[in-house]
Amino acid sequence: MAARGPERVSVLLPTYNERDNLPLVVWLLARTFSDSGIDFEIIIIDDGSPDGTQEVAQQLEKIYGSDKIVRKLFLFPSGTAYIHGMKYATGNFIVIMDADLSHHVRMDFMYCGKQKEGNFDIVSGTRYKGNGGVYGWDLKRKLISRGANFLTQVLLRPGASDLTGSFRLYRKEVLQKLMEKCVSKGYVFQMEMIVRARQLGYTIGEVPISFVDRVYGESKLGGNEIVSFLKGLLTLFATT
């Protein structure tokens, strides 16, 4: 087991058309890490955004320094974007999260709190446990999310309450091993990561989070993503 507590945390932040959200989420992350005394870097992995996100990332690199902001361009699904970003991560713990301000950026809860509490290999934010919740979604999207999570619990029995969330902290070596095992892309990727972690015997801690609908821009969730999720779920059920 690795030593307790990371010396440096790398945040992998995939972006697509996040010009308006990116400055605020980076500022919040930088302030939180600095206030908590945690050394950090933020790796922005942009998917060829046409809205000027890359130019904003360049300005943020100038403001915070290239040791804190790392810019990369990668034109592939989110799962492989994480693989690409991890190549440049220098932290021994890695956080994956969205750039749309949906996630509470209090990293001290996940690192200084839960991770240290149990020396966990993975700490996952959960919307479905304790005082966690979702805000800003209409009834249809809440039902889709709840239904997807219910199906994963019934079919996969993963030992975690929120498989479809994308706010997690990993030991770097654990994330590397899981990346080698996972074959899914898109929305199914997050679910497979937890299932494979259970198979490999990694420890998972959970922290209740408040998930807030994006401030700017539009959600990418649509019919094609739902169909892909169901196909991926059945594939995992048949192969795990």
Task: Explain briefly what this protein structure is.
The chain is an alpha/beta fold. Helix content is 45%, strand content 18%. α5 packs parallel to α8 and α7 packs parallel to α8.
Description:
With 240 residues, the protein is an alpha/beta fold. It has one domain (8-239): Spore Coat Polysaccharide Biosynthesis Protein SpsA, Chain A (Alpha-Beta Complex). The protein is 45% helix and 18% strand. The chain contains eight helices and nine strands. The strands form two sheets. The chain has a seven-stranded mixed beta sheet with strand order 3-2-1-4-7-5-8, with helices on both faces. A two-stranded parallel sheet has the order 6-9. Mean pLDDT is 82; it is low at 1-5.
Helical residue percent? 40-55%
Mean pLDDT level: 82
Radius of gyration: 17 Å
**What is the name of the CATH topology?**
Spore Coat Polysaccharide Biosynthesis Protein SpsA, Chain A
Helix tally equals 8
- How much β-strand is present in the residues? 15-25%
Spatial sequence of strands, sheet with the most strands = 3-2-1-4-7-5-8
Shape, per Cα inertia axes: globular
What topology does this entry show?
Layout: E1 9-15, H1 22-36, E2 40-46, H2 53-64, E3 69-73, H3 78-86, E4 93-96, H4 107-118, E5 122-126, E6 133-135, H5 139-156, E7 168-171, H6 172-181, H7 187-200, E8 204-208, E9 210-212, H8 223-239
Parallel strand pairs: 1-2, 1-4, 2-3, 5-8, 6-9
Antiparallel strand pairs: 4-7, 5-7
Helix pairs in contact: 5-8, 7-8
Pathway: Protein modification; protein glycosylation
Protein name: Dolichol-phosphate mannosyltransferase subunit 1
Family: Belongs to the glycosyltransferase 2 family.
